[in-house]
Specification:
The complex is a heterotrimer of chains A (217), B (134) and C (140). Chain A is an alpha/beta fold. Chain A contains 8 helices and 9 strands. In chain A, the strands form 2 sheets. Chain A has a 7-stranded mixed β-sheet, sandwiched between helices. In chain A, strands 6-7 form a two-stranded parallel sheet. In chain A, strand 6, helix 6 and strand 7 form a beta-alpha-beta unit. Chain A starts with a strand and ends with a helix. Chain B has a single domain, classed as Thiol Ester Dehydrase, Chain A, CATH 3.10.129. Chain B contains 1 helix and 5 strands. In chain B, strands 1-3-4-5-2 form a 5-stranded antiparallel β-sheet, with no helix packed on it. The mean pLDDT of chain B is 92. Chain C is of the alpha+beta class and 140 residues long. In chain C, strands 1-3-4-5-2 form a 5-stranded antiparallel β-sheet, covered by helices on one side. Classes of the chains: A alpha/beta (217), B mainly beta (134), C alpha+beta (140). At the B-C interface, helix 1 and strand 2 of B face helix 1, helix 3 and strand 2 of C. Strand 2 of chain B pairs antiparallel with strand 2 of chain C.
Chain lengths: 217, 134, 140
């Protein structure tokens, strides 16, 4: 099963991609992008009322939800967001404590995954150069579709040294970038609970579809 | 330090400017410099509206958000085209202020909304300009 | 590309612009667009502002997006244009401006096509990304 674990819809202030248009695009591009679903990880927010089940039914794709929050060790994807988490942590705060957030999210039934770790300032690699490692990190985003040359490559050292699992995601903010990087799971994922459990256990790997989409210009 | 400012600034009008009539020369100069063709029926190119500079580009009571400002992006909805002789009015408000972190560190963003109308009160454009400060 | 709504399909690539702007072209645009910042005028003025060199105004990237739409869909009308400026664009460096159709729909306001737009270096670094909504004229 292949999921894009890092996507932004027009609910994020810097995205222009409606969720339904993402779905139409994935159905149309199925031969190049064999994506079974996405996780919406909007910037610095959580809307408990958002419900994409009608779109799931209409397009036959899984739509799960998480959040991308900002910490003193860079940006972090939070899966399994619940009321306990949003009461404890203000998702609009761009200075959350990663040492506090990541273990607390796990304790509250979710999982927090540092994203684009190789990116300057907002990625884990740079912070690990002069700060202690964070307790409770299980996986990092080894493949990010929005990263610049060299940024994804920096992450391998982190994975080798700390034994982190690796995921992939597009970090899409435009319709045509959905699914360009993703994660392949051995297990079947049907819910956010399935996703959190599987991310904790292993049996997944990042996938890169960007070469399939390259055009001659 | 977290952003600290008087939130009543959001939604407040800070500039209202009526511009001199649009000239043929201004349109031709813009086309020549931008490479953007005239819109249909010899109207100004769509992005001609970004050259409208009001008396104030920021509110007087703007919080101090950083030393350097950059244009971070725009969203423009286009209405009727701009034609030679049009007298345009631009009304600007602060639409939003927020903070985020990126490759260059912590940044404050200000979204300024400018509504442009012509002498017939037809809407010409709504421009949301995102300014980044650090 | 075509001026007919019926000929446009989701997934179609727009026309591609391959460009290298000179410092003089950038300065001329800044003057025509009434943008007085030294950063757009010369290498020296830009460095005084703490920048690595002269930069292309974001508005000029917007104009390039608009030009791409006009060349790709002759006779159509640009209704919305957005751009996010993700990195500095400098004169003297080659770049590509391209896009793709992501949606088309018939509405009460006309036949509309949505596009994703990208301005990127020839090595694939995306400096500006955006979207456009284009309205096609009714067919006779």
């Amino acid at each position: 099963m292949i999921l894009d674990l890092h996507t932004h819809s027009d609910a994020s202030e810097d995205s222009r991609a409606p969720v339904e248009t993402y779905m139409k695009w994935l159905v149309r591009k199925r031969d190049l992008l064999p994506i079974d679903g996405i996780v919406l990880t909007e910037h610095r927010q959580w809307n408990p009322a958002a419900d994409y089940r009608p779109l799931e039914d209409k397009y036959g794709l899984l739509i799960l939800r998480g959040a991308e929050v900002e910490t003193d060790y860079g940006h972090v994807l939070v899966y399994g967001v619940n009321d306990d988490m949003t009461r404890r942590f203000d998702f609009t705060n761009v200075r959350l404590s990663a040492q506090e957030l990541i273990p607390a999210v796990a304790h509250m039934g979710g999982l927090a995954v540092p994203c684009h770790p190789g990116r300057p300032t907002i990625g884990l690699c740079e912070h690990y150069e002069h700060k202690p490692p964070i307790d409770g990190v299980v996986a990092v985003e080894a493949l990010n579709g929005g990263s610049r040359r060299g940024e994804n490559e920096r992450v391998q050292h982190l994975i080798d040294h700390y034994g982190y699992h690796a995921v992939g995601g597009s970090d899409s903010h435009l319709v045509s970038f959905i699914g360009i990087c993703a994660t392949e799971f051995d297990a079947d994922i049907r819910s956010i609970e399935d996703l959190v459990n599987t991310l904790q256990q292993g049996g997944y790997r990042p996938l890169d579809f960007r070469d399939r989409l390259k055009k001659d210009v | 330090m977290a952003l600290d400012f008087d939130r009543s600034i959001i939604g407040s009008e800070f500039d209202r400017t009526v511009f001199a009539p649009v000239t043929k020369e201004a349109i031709e100069d813009y086309i020549a410099a931008s490479g953007e063709p005239a819109a249909n029926d010899m109207a100004a190119p769509p992005t001609f509206v970004v050259r409208l500079r009001g008396h104030r580009w920021m509110p007087e009571n703007m919080p101090n958000l950083g030393r350097t400002g950059f244009d971070a992006g725009k969203d423009i909805a286009f209405g009727v085209p701009v034609r030679i002789g049009d007298v345009l009015t631009a009304v600007s408000t602060v639409h939003d202020i927020y903070e985020k972190t990126g490759r260059t560190g912590s940044m404050a963003f200000v979204v300024l909304r400018t509504v442009v109308t012509n002498q017939r009160d037809d809407e010409v454009a709504v421009i949301d300009q995102k300014m980044m400060f650090r | 590309m075509s001026g007919r709504f019926e000929d446009v399909d989701v997934g179609h690539d727009l026309h591609t612009l391959a460009l290298t702007l000179s410092g003089e072209q950038v300065k001329n645009y800044a003057v025509a667009a009434r943008m007085p910042g030294g950063r757009f005028m010369s290498e020296e003025e830009a460095r005084k502002e703490g920048l690595p060199g002269q930069i292309v105004p974001g508005n000029m990237s917007l104009a390039l997006f608009s030009r791409l739409i006009a060349e790709s869909f002759p006779g159509a009308t640009l209704k919305k244009l957005s751009a996010t400026f993700r990195g500095l664009v400098h004169p003297g460096r080659s770049f590509l401006v391209h896009g793709v159709v992501t949606e088309k729909h018939r509405t009460d306001h006309g036949d509309l096509v949505e596009c994703d737009l990208v301005l990127e270096s020839t090595e694939g670094d995306r400096w500006v990304t955006g979207t456009a909504t284009v309205q096609f004229p009714p067919q006779e």
